[in-house]
Amino acid sequence: MRLAIGLGIVLLAATTLAQDGVFVDKRNNMSVKNWTSFVIHRVSDSLVEFKGEGKPLQAEWAGQRIELRTNSLSGSASVQAEGLLTLISADLQGAVWARQKLPSAQGASAVQSVEVEAGSATYLAQSFTWTLKSAVALRQSDPAAGVSFSAKGNSGSAALAAPNAAKPPRFGMTQFELKGGVTFQWTRKEVKEGQAQTSTLKGSTDHLVFENAKGTLTLRGNVSLDGDSPALLGAVSASVATLTLDAEGNVTKIEFEGSPGKTVLKPPPGTETRVAASALLLGFGVALGTAARGGRSS
C-alpha cells in the first residue's frame, strides 16, 4: 500500500488519512477506500488532483450522491470551505460501476437510482455526464413510481439529472445513447382496481437514443420489440422504432419503419394477426398504416 500527498494538500487540515487504504476529507464528503496506492496533489487554492489504484477501490462524494468502484481512478476536485472536496471530473479504468441517487418522480421524499457499468468511463460533474466504453450497462430504478429501465450495449453515454432536481426527467436522465448489440427492458408496476399489475417492453437494436426533452426513445437498425405493454401488444421487427413516452415514462405510442417490417399482434387469447408493413403506428392496441394483412386464426 502506498500513499503520496502533494505538499500543498497538507494545508488542508481537514484531510483525514488512515493506515488501511482510506482517504476522507474533513467534511466527510469525498472518501476513497480500499486502495493499494493513492496520490493527491493540491494544484491551487481551489483545485486538487488525485489518482488511485485498487482491486477495486471505492469512492464516494456524499453531497453529489455519487458512489463508484473501479480498478483505477484519477480526476480532479474543487476545494470548498473547511476542506470539503467536490468532484469535478473522473476517469475510471477497469471493472467500472457507479451509482447516483436522485429524487423519485413521485417527489423528493422518495429516491430513485441510476447505475452504470463499463470497462472504462469518464464523468464530468458539471453536466452530470458519463461516457462509457466496453460492455456498457445502464440501470434505472424508481420503486416509488413503479418504473425501472435497463439496457446494455458496446459503448454509450448518459446525462443524468441533477441530484437535487425538483422534477427529475424520465428514467432520471436527460438523455442517453447506446451503440452496438443493444438490448433493453422497460418495466412498469402499478395497482389498478386493487390488483397489482406489471407490464414489460423489451427489445434489441443496433443504436438506441433517449431524449427527455422530446419524450422519445428511438431505436435504429435491426429493431426487435416484444412484451405486454399496452402500446405494443405484440412482437415487432423493423428498421426503426420510435417510442413516445408520457410524463411518467409510460409508453403511449410506437411508430415503426421497415423494408418491410414484420409484426405479430397479440389480441385476446385464441386469435393471432400477422402484419407486414413498410410503416406502422401502434398506440394502445390500435394499428394504423398501409399494411398487407396475412392470416388470421380464431
Describe what is shown at a glance.
The chain is built from no helices and 18 strands. The protein is mainly beta and 298 residues long.
Q: How far apart, in Å, are the first and last alpha carbons? A: 71 Å
| Oligomeric description of these chains | single chain
Radius of gyration: 23 Å
**What value does the average pLDDT take?**
83
Shape: elongated
Q: What features would you describe in this structure?
A:
By secondary structure, the chain is mainly beta. It contains no helices and 18 strands. The chain has strands at 2-5, 16-17, 22-24, 30-44, 47-61, 66-79, 85-104, 107-124, 129-142, 147-160, 173-192, 195-211, 216-227, 234-245, 251-265, 272-283, 286-288, 291-297. It has an 18-stranded mixed sheet that branches. It is elongated and about 60 Å long. It starts with a strand and ends with a strand.
